Amino acid sequence: MTDGIAGEQGHGGETHQQASGDDVRLTTQQGVVVADDQNTLRAGERGPALLEDFHFREKLFHFDHERIPERVVHARGFGAHGYFENDAALDDLTIADPFREAGRRTEVFVRFSTVAGNKGSADLARDVRGFAVKMYTGEGNWDLVGNNMPVFFIQDAMKFPDVVHAAKEEPDRGFPQAQTAHDNFWDFVSLTPESTHMLLWIMSDRAIPRSFRFMEGFGVHTFRLVNAEGRSTFVKFHWKPKQGMQSVVWNEAVKINGADPDFHRRDLWDAIQAGDFPEWELGMQLFDEDFADRFAFDILDPTKFVPEEEVPVRRVGTLVLDRVVDNFFAETEQVAFCTQNIIPGIDFTNDPLLQGRNFSYLDTQLKRLGSPNFTRLPVNAPKCPFATFQQDGHMATANPANRVNYEPNSWPSEIKGPREDPERGFQTVPEDVSGPKRRLRPESFADHYSQARQFFASQTEVEQQHIIDAFVFELSKCERVEVRARVVAALRNVDDTLAGSVADGLGLPALPDPAPCAREPRTDLPQSPALSILRNGPRTFAGRKIGVLVTDGVDANLLSQLRDAIREEGAVIEIIAAKVGGVVADDGNHIEADQKIDGAPSVIYDAVAVLATDKAAAQLAALPPARDFVSDAYAHCKFIAHRGADALFTAAGVTGEHDAGIIDLAGDSSPADFVVRCRDIRYWARS
Ligand code: HDE
Hints:
Blueprint: H1 54-64, E1 77-86, E2 105-114, E3 129-137, E4 140-147, H2 160-167, H3 183-190, H4 196-202, E5 217-218, E6 223-226, E7 232-241, H5 250-259, H6 263-273, E8 279-287, H7 289-294, E9 314-324, H8 328-333, E10 346-347, H9 352-369, H10 450-457, H11 461-476, H12 481-491, H13 496-506, E11 545-550, H14 556-569, E12 572-577, E13 583-584, E14 590-591, E15 595-596, E16 607-611, H15 614-620, H16 624-635, E17 640-643, H17 646-651, E18 662-664, H18 671-678
Parallel strand pairs: 11-12, 11-16, 12-15, 16-17, 17-18
Antiparallel strand pairs: 1-2, 1-9, 2-3, 3-4, 5-7, 6-7, 6-10, 7-8, 8-9, 13-14
Helix pairs in contact: 2-3, 3-12, 4-10, 11-13, 12-13, 14-18
The site of CIS-heme D hydroxychlorin gamma-spirolactone 17R, 18S (HDE) has 25 residues, from strand 2, strand 3, strand 4 and helix 9.
């Protein structure tokens, strides 16, 4: 802290807010103890309310003003605290504080989000996810405001309002909510060839992650790392989930949104509360000007990625989320990420989206939070010393207490305030910049299809089919046939099987001609296996959840073996029964249920088991949610273990020769064998 100038951190002053304990009395905001919080002050028992009731007026006034504007995009989000731990000093590359030495820990706050939906929308919308990280470093806050996909829809920030308007609700009717399956979105993107690559990503399973814990993150733009000599290296940032990647299938997503619209936030909350802290490795793709010149695409173009096979991702440290928020509003809602928040050792590039974002985020935070003093909110304030001459504004709580609020000044050192420091201060890379002022798209941004093709070609067959299905689903929701056809025309530049299958799924009468291209697409780009989720499966069931449907008479010994095997794997078990009161096992012991069958469809589990008796299975067979439990798990290619459940399986239509994804616990397979099979997450052969 420097000389007491505007340097106070955290909550200002000594207050006794929100004390807790048995003897705490309810007061007004002014500290006056309230005698009656149940009844307004009235003239007579049945008479009118009186204006002088200051407690009532203050209470309602405050309530009326509880909402702040939601984020214009990324409104629906969920955050958590944690830390980043650095593996080794990176001083050859950067002076950035988090990378100074091995083992250095930096506090972080991370907020995950969807983009299109409003604040109350469901978590499992088909959408790109925000992955925003605020690092409270020793030299200021560094915000890496990324997504779970490495590319974006547009090449120029000027188009951001258009793509967002087109994706969100249509303005006359105010729907559809949190989905791109409508005319406006597909109209816009089909007229914007640069979006094609991103379309492949959002129609892929990346757009319906199983949870925040199982998705990758990307800084998207090319940034710079800068070392002590001022030498800069280009960098693309990656977050690699240690839990492995995993997505749901579309039919599940639709049902999860009904069963548990908070599926993702609940998952993160539960995992952290259970001490199963999610972790990501921070990766860097590092390259120089020579590579940038050689690379097939422009490294400033945010609709392109650099394949990992071409520039490997160097793992430099680990992000751990180990603490949930104390208060959603104070932290998750009020956190204000700004791409402009960088620290010495990191710098921008001329990526035109990044340049535009650097204006937009500060501007949007002022609108949302209502005062330039949002930087003083505890979740936004730096945790290193800070000192400025800025003052006043709405909700100023940290104005300095002395006479000096400007520099240069000649006041004595006790009150003269802070000064700049050319040695330790932030330095911009002195890149040469010249050229005529013009509005244009560089020629080097003109290839809109080659990487879309590379992405599609790098997927497994199952994943390719999901992409095709997603295009067909979304375009089937478009009323205008010409919009559907225009998308297929663009897809013809990506892959003819893809375009043909989508046209077929839509029932288009004829395959349209390929859309005109600014540059002929390349067909020689090699596959990039890193782009496939299934090729990079988790090979563990840790962190996943099994739903076990039980009935009276359940084999207690078998259930306890299953419980042990699941725990051993680091996974979670939930017991489901026809009544939440639970069941009585064959040894006479009572077993608590976590869920009643109606509230626990199999879509909210990664694998399921049904442990019943012949008699009870026949009763379950009469319950539609129990039948759906089995038939959905089967349709979604989940691993299913069973014992004594034949009648239910028959009623659910899962009959005949069972496949290798269905494990009979009455036969040779043990609960431990079942859990080992679950490591594959899905039995795709069934699809
Ligand atoms: Fe954002 N974006 N964005 N964006 N963005 C916002 O800032 C914007 C872009 C991203 O959890 C807004 O606080 C423009 C790319 C995340 O609070 C706003 C452009 C990427 C979040 C804004 C982009 C992102 C935002 C709205 C095109 C991935 C949520 C609310 C040039 C690299 C952060 C807010 C959180 C939020 C503007 C494109 C990620 C309006 C103009 C590309 C994760 O300022």
